[in-house]
Amino acid sequence: MCAPTGRAAKRMTEATGFEAKTIHRLLEVDPRGGGFKRDGDHPLDCDLLVVDETSMVDIMLMQALVKAVPDTAAMLIVGDIDQLPSVGAGQVLADIIASGAVPVVRLIEVFRQAAQSRIIIAAHRINQGSLPDLGKPEGDSDFYFVPADDPETAVPRIVDLVHNRIPRRFGLDPIRDIQVLCPMNRGGVGARSLNIELQAALNPAGERKVERFGWTFAPGDKVMQIENDYDKEVYNGDIGYIGDVDPDSGELTASFDGRSVTYGFGELDTLVPAYATTIHKSQGSEYPAVVIPVLTQHYAMLQRNLLYTGVTRGKRLVVLVGQKKAIAIAVRNVSGRRRWSRLNEWLASKTSVSADHGIVR
Fold it and tell me: pLDDT, tens digit, for every residue of 193-225?
């Protein structure tokens, strides 16, 4: 079993009880020379390969993975083509499904939340191009809209939601259980400025701190690794918590899934505070609660698949903060960056040729 991110692989392990690895680790990546040790000449030792979160896998990585699958093995790929596409080139999962070259099963029964969850209803409406119900719910709910007409109004409301209102109402830890997900990094309600505000409210730094690369790091901070580091075994998107900052030794220690990792102060360009992050960085993850600012200031990034991806990250609670107009823009916008690929046509043509012989390859 494998997935493109460490977080998604960890979720597979938790759900099944079997070991899952990142695709890079499964293929035995060479961190210095590049490339993979597992390939057509040295295939994987398996009868069935299961790949999760395949919408995040780009064309080059999928090519390397398929090459390493033994001819005698089967392959099961799982993913959601309505989420954001891969950061790298291509739209592999969408092309494979559209080609008709492989059997496709669509899962429509809801397990992550109760079937009547307002999160689920909102996600389905967004996916269908309809505005979700933004009215005030009667009684308890798992989906809310908090109006804010501009960043000056939105920022203090987001901080109050994370610091006070959600923990008090739902009994959630403001640092470990609540994640702010932004359409973009820049701007007054972008991930960068919100990190500064949330860090000041949730974990103000004492004397034991270090300032590097434009950020302050202190014990108790939630941080995200933003590059793959195969030596430390921490990967892009992994979230950890700072245990200690030692100015004398020039080192910081952080815990990732219970494992302690040490950084020299000069290596802190690979860490950023993670009280807020972008929706792109959240792919493959889920959180007890998410707060999503949606304002017209984010116009360039307001797209249906972005909003859908953000909303579906929340397990127990989703709160949208911003303008109904901005949400409507996102729901209507299905353009994004169009991706042109011949994979669909190539797979379809190979299938039709093979089908003449009674075989689908």
Answer: 999 999 999 999 788 889 888 899 999 999 999
CA–CA distance, 139 with 149 (Å, rounded to integer):
25
**Cβ–Cβ under 8 Å, residues 304 and 127:** yes
230 sits in the region (left: phi over 0; alpha: psi -120 to 50; else beta) called alpha
Beta bridge partners of 217: 210
Q: Which residues contact 311 (CB under 8 A, 6 or more apart)?
A: 119, 122, 123, 126, 132, 290, 292, 318, 320
Count Cβ atoms within 10 A of the Cβ of residue 193 and give its class: 0-12 exposed, 13-18 middle, 19 or more buried: middle
Type and span of the H or E element at 207: none
Tokens of 140: 């308890």
Per-residue pLDDT, 233: 82
Whether the pTM exceeds 0.90: the reply is: no
Tokens of 77: 């790929």
Q: pLDDT tens for residues 295-335?
A: 998 777 899 999 999 999 999 999 999 999 999 999 999 87
**Beta-carbon neighbour count of residue 242 at 10 Å?**
22
